[in-house]
Amino acid sequence: MTRKPAPQAAAQARALALLGRWNRIARGHLALAGGCSCGTGAVSLSVADLESQLIEFLFQRFGREAAGRAWLEGAGILPDGSGRIDAVLARLARPGAPPAMAADLLEQLEISIDSFAQLHRGAP
Q: How far apart, in whole angstroms, are the C-alpha atoms of residue 87 and residue 84?
């Protein structure tokens, strides 16, 4: 009989998987206006261009309470949008995130990364 991983272990594995996806996507660009900047004249953004907006959103959403704010600041996430998504995911992959916050934070990150992947055609 196979045992289910503990919720924290499952969250850590999910964070590692998202970290891998984020790293692949972040090396690329987002093609806007119906094309890819690799060969056409479409407008293009790097994922890093949008990272600070995502960081600000995460801080506004999860930094309202002292425990969430302290956890985010421990990952280098600040209210001004400075910080890195890979640092958040790496920290989520280690023990210590409040379980309810970790689950919701992973959900929000997965939604955002999925959205970036759709824009970045070819990202898994």
A: 5
Q: Which residue has the tokens 């998987």?
A: 17
Terminal CA-CA length for the chain:
31
Any idea which residue has 């790097």 for tokens? Answer: 46
- Asked if 94 contacts 36 with a C-beta cutoff of 8 angstroms, the reply is no
For residues 11 and 97, what is the distance between their CA atoms, to the nearest angstrom? 10
pLDDT per residue as tens digits for the range 4-41: 557 778 889 999 999 999 988 887 655 555 555 455 45
β-bridge mates for residue 29, sequence order: 46
**For residue range 45-61, what is the model confidence (pLDDT) as tens digits?**
667 778 888 999 999 99
- Among 64, 111, 71, 73, smallest CA distance to 92 is for 71
| The model's pTM | 0.77
Domain-wise residue ranges, the chain = 9-119
Pairing of β 29-32 and β 43-46 = antiparallel
